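Working notes for the structural subgroup meeting. M.R. asked for a predicted model of this chain before we commit to crystallization trials. I am recording the input and output together here so anyone reviewing the notebook later can reproduce the run.

Input as submitted:
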Amino acid sequence: MGFFDKFKKKEESAEKGSLAKQIVDQKDDQKPKKAAKKPVKKSKKEDKSVEQIATSTSKRSAATILEPIVTEKTAKLSDDGVIVLKVAKHANKVMVRQAVRELYKVNPVKINIINVRGKRVRFGRQSGQRNDYKKAMVMLPKGTRVDIFEGV
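Returned structure, recorded in token form:
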């Protein structure tokens, strides 16, 4: 249940109560009362609630950070307060900073981004190349720790 749903429930219960009073008053007076005015249609920009905006930003941050990179080297770096993440190709430092704030609730000190070329590989006579990706090395403040190796 969202924060604003509480207010919606109160408004709905108030409307139901006012309708019941109108029906009782109609029976007593036999005079119909004026119905409540219809709410004014809001523009499309105003239609988005705070809840929708929050979910859209969390979706964006989830789309920015694809997965953590788990290797021996990144495990050693995590002891020093650096986490290594695979990020979207279109991501920049600002987007990665916002995503880390939202997902891990930590304000990063420094972010380095590297474009990694895919290795050339061979399978018998067939040759190919792995996909290119972008890697972000996020330095966390001293004393903070994000455990990205939990489910591994």
